[in-house]
Amino acid sequence: MVQLEQPFVWPEEPVEEELKRDFDQERWSQLAGDRERQMKGRQNDERKMKERLSVAEQAQRLLEGKDRWKDLDVSAAQTPTTGRFNLPIR
Description:
Layout: H1 16-22, H2 25-63, H3 74-77
């Protein structure tokens, strides 16, 4: 068992002026923004990884002969909202 040399005493509650002086709202907001950007970056990284895996799986299926490559009309495959191409392997 451990005994304290002196009894523990709770510190006094800080007064509002001390809180305003010691709390940096601008820095807190900056850190919150940094965390949000990091999370978005991680989500983008995860999405990119899924896309890479999907492309790798499609390539593997082509190499194994499980899927066949089919030429598509590229202009019809472009999505109007994102401008990306949806080119399915058939």
